[in-house]
Automatic annotation (TrEMBL):
This is Permease of the major facilitator superfamily. PROSITE patterns: MFS (PS50850), SUGAR_TRANSPORT_1 (PS00216). Pfam families: MFS_1. Residues 730-750 are annotated as: Disordered. Keywords: Cell membrane, Membrane, Transmembrane, Transmembrane helix. It comes from Pararhodospirillum photometricum DSM 122.
Length: 750
């Protein structure tokens, strides 16, 4: 009788993606949805209240600043009076008022009148215009809506309903708030100083604050969402899914001891179930031992047949599980890596909108000037260190462990960011940015490896998309936060905040990336293994026509040129941050849906090619018109294109290198891919800075876009012709698959 072979465990046992009841009936989903609704409402009301409070105090603050300027002018007039110069004969007063006005952007005019109201001295407006303003009737023009006010007007009205009415002073006259300051000499009035602030300036400030509050609410929601999804997945839904998968295996007779959860009740249930599994394993071992003892006691054929049937029945009903097939909750794996990626990328991204300006200022303070190539050097060095570190870090993190590698990298990033903030010299800046690049590479490799260790081929693109989702969320939050903070607390303080975030990432990673890897270190993860991959012509095409152009345009256009172009157009740091945020917003919304469809239809190559074309073509309008509108469109197109291609790109690389994976393992393939694309990223700022002189800022961006679009077209043409994998008839015969035949000839086994 043939030996009984127990059926293999279900594929789902390796990665828990169990079918669940309807979303509405799932208690975890209901809890998550209810919490999300509460968070959204709370954030909206908090944002409205904060906006309303800022409006209530804006006019008093403008009045306070105007009076401070007026006091300084009054002191100068008093000095002239004390030396005997009559108020009506002050020489050069118009020029002095003009110099004061040039330093106060919020003040529209300065005027001095005699006690009868005649304008004697003025700056900003003509005397007749100031006289018209002073004699006009007060009217509440700050609350009237114009076509230019738009959404900010309605948001302003709504916020005042939450916070209460504004702390008003006198209504404006003829479109200006006029602050009146009497001018006295020896206790007697000699004139009046009028300081005017335009209602339009007030509305501009309201619109600016409305944008900041709106961005702050969006960022707060994204951060809260990341925290919420991490807490619910890692402590509740993840352990529950793992426990349910273990119960399903137990129902099939596979005795797997459940992994203990993070919540006390789940942990207690897992402990009780573990006791049941241990008891069943002990009983099974005892029963099989008794069967063997009975076999030895009763050698009769009929008894042996009956005992064999009993043994087969035991093997069918209950069988110990292979430790390698313990259920793994993929959701917890993916989300843990996602939040870690969010934190460590956020630490770097908050410096993104002002880094070129910060480097330029540091170079000028060090006496090196503001050459474009010099500005690009620290940014390129950061990316070059990332590129050169990733190949060996991929294999090293397998040996050291993903969690230890991540914590080490986050610690190194903390030191690098602190050094960048505290040491103002250009040479030290290069060293600190290189150290930050080392930390970034270690943390990135650890998170990516944690995902790929647990995700099967059918889940790779989705797993990478979840991981990349954390990066894109940081791409949204970081520039916007950094831009707003830089305008208020300075560049160095923002870098200190980044160091704190990197340290927080290290602490969180110690908890979120717990658990061993499910793969062993690749035996051939060396330089020789990576160089041998260059024999794969399809892989070389992917690297040169997709990976490199994508990183060149990302670092050269988005990280280097966009802040310079926006600053050249007069944008503030907060506006630059919001502009760069568009890239991350597009990726956050679109990356996972695109990856899901690429996985579903197995169209990874098409997604990569189309993404490159979208990103490249979006930059071409800058060749004809350089404005905030075209720059915004370019950033948005770049975000859409990268969202379409970034997750399928790695899956396509692994597909193209499928034969090489079996030969050298995963680490050399991923290491070579990351090395080449990061080298492209390191060259981006240099290429962009070299294009500025002949093409200008807008032309440089358009040239980068044209190059990426051409590369994407060539990529699509090549793989339409040759396909993603060689035809079976084109594969070289494996010597192990060639058997000698009876006539001495060798024939390949098909």
């Amino acid at each position: 009788m043939p030996e009984h072979v127990p059926p293999p465990p279900p594929a789902a046992s390796l990665g828990v993606e169990s079918p669940r009841p309807g979303l509405v009936s799932n208690p975890v989903v209901r809890l998550f949805a209810a919490t999300t609704v509460v968070l959204v409402l709370t954030m909206i009301l908090t944002g409205l209240y904060a906006f309303g409070v800022s409006q209530r105090h804006l006019l008093p603050e403008l009045d306070f600043n105007a009076r401070a300027v007026g006091d300084a002018i009054a002191e100068r007039v008093a000095v002239a009076q004390e030396v005997g110069i009559p108020f009506e004969r002050l020489v050069g007063m118009d020029e002095y008022l003009g110099s004061v006005l040039a330093t106060q952007s919020e003040i529209a005019y300065l005027g001095m009148t005699d006690p009868t109201g005649k304008v004697l001295y003025r700056a900003g407006l003509e005397a007749s215009e100031i006289h018209r303003i002073l004699t006009a009737s007060p009217s509440d023009e700050s609350g009237s809506q114009t076509a230019e006010d738009g959404w900010a007007f309605w948001l302003s009205r709504a916020s005042l309903l939450v916070s209460g009415p504004p702390l008003r002073r006198d209504a404006p006259r003829a479109g200006y708030y006029d602050t009146i300051l009497p001018l006295l000499f020896q206790g007697q009035p000699v004139g009046v100083l009028h300081i005017g602030v335009s209602v339009d300036f007030y509305k501009e400030e309201i619109s600016e604050e409305a944008g900041d509050v709106l961005i702050a609410v969006v960022i707060a929601l994204l951060v809260a969402f990341e925290i919420l999804i991490a807490v619910t997945t890692l402590t509740l839904s993840g352990p529950l899914d793992t426990l349910l998968a273990t119960l399903r295996q137990a129902a099939q007779g596979i005795l797997v001891r459940p992994v203990q959860g993070s919540v006390r009740e789940i942990d207690r249930l897992a402990h009780h179930m573990g006791g049941v599994v241990d008891a069943l394993n002990t009983a099974l071992t005892g029963l099989k031992a008794r069967v063997e003892a009975l076999r030895a006691r009763w050698p009769e054929r009929q008894a042996q047949a009956a005992l064999h049937d009993i043994d087969q029945g035991l093997d069918t009903a209950l069988r110990p599980a292979d430790p390698a097939q313990t259920p793994v909750d993929l959701a917890s794996v993916f989300i843990g890596a996602r939040v870690c990626a969010f934190l460590f990328v956020l630490a770097e991204e908050i410096a993104r909108p002002f880094m070129p300006v910060f480097i330029q200022a540091t170079a000028q303070e060090s006496g090196l000037g503001g050459n474009a190539l010099l500005i690009g050097l620290p940014m390129s060095l950061f990316l070059l260190v990332v590129a050169l570190t990733m190949p060996w870090a991929a294999g090293w993190s397998e040996r050291l462990g993903r969690r230890r590698t991540f914590v080490l990298g986050a610690g190194v990033s903390t030191v690098g960011l602190l050094g960048t903030a505290l040491d103002p010299t250009f040479g030290a800046l290069l060293a600190w940015r290189a150290l930050s690049g080392l930390g970034y590479a270690l943390t990135f490799v650890a998170c990516q490896g944690h995902v790929l260790d647990h995700a099967g081929p059918a889940q790779r693109a989705r797993g990478v998309a979840v991981f990349v989702g954390g990066i894109t969320a940081a791409d949204i939050c970081g520039p916007a936060i950094g831009g707003m903070l830089a305008a208020r607390i300075g560049f160095e303080a923002v870098l200190g905040v980044g160091a704190g975030l990197a340290l927080g990432a290290a602490v969180f990673g110690m908890w979120a990336l717990r658990g061993p890897s499910v793969v062993l270190p690749s035996p051939g993860a060396g330089v020789g293994s990576m160089l041998s991959l260059l024999k794969n012509k399809r892989l070389v095409v992917v690297l040169l026509l997709s990976a490199v152009p994508a990183k060149v345009v990302l670092s050269g256009a988005l990280f280097f040129l966009v802040p310079l172009v926006a600053a050249d157009l007069g944008a503030t740091q907060a506006e630059i941050g919001r502009l760069v945020m568009l890239y991350g917003l597009a990726g956050f919304v679109l990356a996972q849906p695109f990856a899901r469809q690429a996985d579903r239809w197995s169209l990874h190559g098409l997604a990569v090619g189309m993404g490159g074309m979208v990103a490249g073509l979006g930059l071409l309008p800058l060749l004809f018109d350089v404005s905030m509108l075209t720059v915004s469109g370019a950033v948005l197109a770049l975000g859409v294109g990268q969202a379409l291609s970034i997750s399928p790109q790695l899956a396509f690389v692994l597909k193209v290198a499928e034969d090489d994976l079996a030969r050298v393992g995963q680490a050399p393939v991923v290491g070579l891919y990351r090395l080449v694309e990061r080298l492209g990223g390191a060259s981006g700022p240099f290429i962009a800075s070299a294009l500025i002189a002949p093409c200008g800022l807008g032309g440089a961006m358009a040239a980068l876009g044209a190059g990426v679009a051409v590369a994407a077209v060539l990529f699509c043409v090549v793989f339409l012709v040759v396909g993603a994998a060689p035809h079976p008839d084109d594969r070289p015969d494996d010597p192990a698959d060639v058997l000698p035949q009876g006539n001495g000839r060798r024939e390949a086994v098909r």
